Amino acid sequence: MPLPQALPFPLSHRFLLLLCFSSTLAAAARGMPSTMVSAAPPNLFPGPSPDALALLAFKSTVGDPSGALASWNDSLPFCSWRGVACGRRHRQRVVALGLRGLGLAGPVPPPLANLTFLRHLHLGENTFRGRIPPELGRLFRLQYLNLSLNSITGEIPTNLSHCTNLRTLSLRSNEIEGKIPGWVGSLPQLSILALTYNRLTGPIPPSLANLSTSLRGLGLFGNDLVGNIPVELGRMANLQLLDVGFNRLSGRVPPSVYNLSSLTVLIVAANQLSGTLPPDIGQALPRLQSLLFYKNLFHGPIPSSFPNATELRQLELGENQFGGAIPPNLGGLPHLSVLVLQRNRLEGGEVDDWAFLTSLTNCSHLRVLQLDVNNIRGTLPTSVANMSTELEVLSMGFNNLSGRIPPGIGNLISLTALDAEVCQLSGDIPETVGSLRALRKLVLDGNNLSGQIPTALGNLTLLTDLLLNFNELRGSIPTSFEHLSALQLLDLSYNQLSGNIPREVVGLSSLSLYLNLSHNSLSGSLPAEVGSLKNLVELDVSENRLSGEIPSSVGECQVLQYLHMQGNLFQGTIPPSLNSRALMVMDLSRNNLSGPIPKFLAGMQLQFLNLSFNSFQGQVPSEGVFRNLSSISIAGNRGLCGGDPVLKLPDCPVLQTPRSRRRHMPKALVTVVVAVPALCVALITLCYLFGKRCWKHHPSHKSSPPAASPFDHYEKVSYGELLKATDGFSPENVLGVGSFGSVYKGVLGPEEKAVAVKVLDLGRHGASKSFTAECQALRNVRHRNLAKVLTSCSGIDFKGDDFKAMVFEFMENGSLEEWLHPGTTGSSD
């Protein structure tokens, strides 16, 4: 079960960051012309303006796939071109160029440096690439430079240090490398420095403290900075935003930083910082609106002085080592919107550790409350139902939380996520949960919840994740789940659910992560609608009482990687449709499946295959996953043979060449197939010559009756009976091959008598004569070592072709050939 994650950075403070920056930008823009709307002045120069030439050079250099600069032509004065603003005093000089978000591409053009009166340059949210042109250092009047949200690389050029009038330098969300240059601290008017989301390395330069009176916002979030937070930053008396989160900073936050009373946003999240929070932090930072310290190594108690920072909206201390009790006076923060305390060591020591929840009912704007993965004990208070109706996230899992889920939980109509997994909650799931129409995640697994799954859960049409596994839920799966059209993940495993799997559930085509119904008492067949789960990654219906055949529609789950069906009563064969290259794990063990193991399994990308304890038979493939003993299990299938030698299975009976078959045929059949025909031909020849001689001298030769068939006194057998006796003349029943046909082992008649059936290949020249000759010979020859002839068949098969066969008594040991030629089967000694 996945642990809950910390609140993402953009949700945490992007709005506050923008708010702080925008207010500073407004101050920085004072005294500038009304950009992008100034009237076009008359052309006072007899020739082309140098600024117009610079703009045309810019246009010729950049890529403009959307035609955003189409107005840059001679039909309009250049001061009326899109994004261009000229000055009021110098009416033919460009003072502002704002081309934000126009889809422009290519390197930043150096001709921009020819706009020497430029004070405001905004090229953000395009696809500019390459390095920042060092020529921009010639723009000594520049006050605002924004190249954010591009693909700019390289280091920050030293020449920008000549832009001593810069008030805002925003290079955020690029791929800029190298260190933060120390000369930035020599830009005396710099108010905003935004370098977030780059690839900057090295320490934070202490020289930034030289901007002690001008700097309002310092954004270094999301780089690869190392070392300590400089103590000198505590001298920035006017600093309102300090964001050094998501770097590799270590050590402690300097006490001087906690004394920056002007701070409204302080972010040090996701570093390796340690230490404790000062007990008087609320008094020391009275203007604080957002404090993000999550994902560090802070320890100690959570100070109870936070309510003194009455403007505090966002307090995120998760994923640290804070201990002790949660201050019960946090409810005194009237503007609190986000409280994240998850993954700490918080506990109380009192019987009712959850009493603080009652105080939080005073926070009428609370939207996010994350308390999961702590050691908070006690009963969930019913006052949770009185929390803010603006509450969107309530996460309490992995605590020693007991009691019932209050029915009043349905009052929290804005909830999008309710998480109370791995606690000790008991009782029924309230029907009122079905009133939370905005709910997207309902995670209640790992509790002691009982009763039936409420049918009202079918009202949660926005639900994407539903986890009720590892409880004691009974009854059937509600068919109302068919309305959960946004559901991506459903886990009802390890309960006591019974009845059939509703086709409405397996027909939810939105399921894409996994469907887990394992370890219940579900019965019936797996509905064919399972084929609707075309985007499902994992299907687990193991350890139930499901029966019938595996539906071939499972093969329509095109991206299925994990298939678990073990421990059921499935029967039949593995459907050919399961031949999916996406499947990595397939477990069909402990069922009643039969037939051969399909060869296509060897051609799949399987990493694990379990077919054990079924009734599979026949040859095991020896390629693919079957080569790795640790990746397969086929134990408990008594009819298997062959495969890789490492499996140590018996050899399979295989079809052999005529010569090798004669070497390995039973001795009795060697006699019948090889020796008898030769002997018969010799005897028939002698009999013919002797009979002809006698016939010439016998007085009654003129009135001899017609010769009877050699098998007139035997019971006749039909082609159909021989077909059935030999299992359709199966190759597995072949005992040997002679010159004029093949010999099959069979079981004939209701007595199930073991016989050897010699089928003549009438397509071979001389086969019919051989049949007649053998019949004549066997009619007259008698010997105790000769296979006893039982009957014959002479007719047509089901295709209308001639068919001739002889049926012998099957002899396990002994033959005429062995009697006549004892040296051929014995030792050569």
TrEMBL record:
Its main location: membrane. The chain crosses the membrane at residues 668-691. It is found in: Cell membrane. This is non-specific serine/threonine protein kinase. Residues 1-28 form the signal peptide. Residues 729-829 form the Protein kinase domain. GO terms for molecular function: ATP binding; protein serine/threonine kinase activity. GO terms for cellular component: plasma membrane. The gene is EFR_5. Keywords: ATP-binding, Cell membrane, Glycoprotein, Kinase, Leucine-rich repeat, Membrane, Nucleotide-binding, Receptor, Repeat, Serine/threonine-protein kinase, Signal, Transferase, Transmembrane, Transmembrane helix. Coiled coil: none annotated. PROSITE patterns: PROTEIN_KINASE_ATP, PROTEIN_KINASE_DOM. It is a single-pass type I membrane protein. It is an enzyme of class 2 (transferase). ATP binds at K758. InterPro entries: Kinase-like_dom_sf, Leu-rich_rpt, Leu-rich_rpt_typical-subtyp, LRR_dom_sf, LRR_N_plant-typ, LRR_R13L4/SHOC2-like, Plant_receptor-like_S/T_kinase, Prot_kinase_dom. Its EC number is 2.7.11.1.
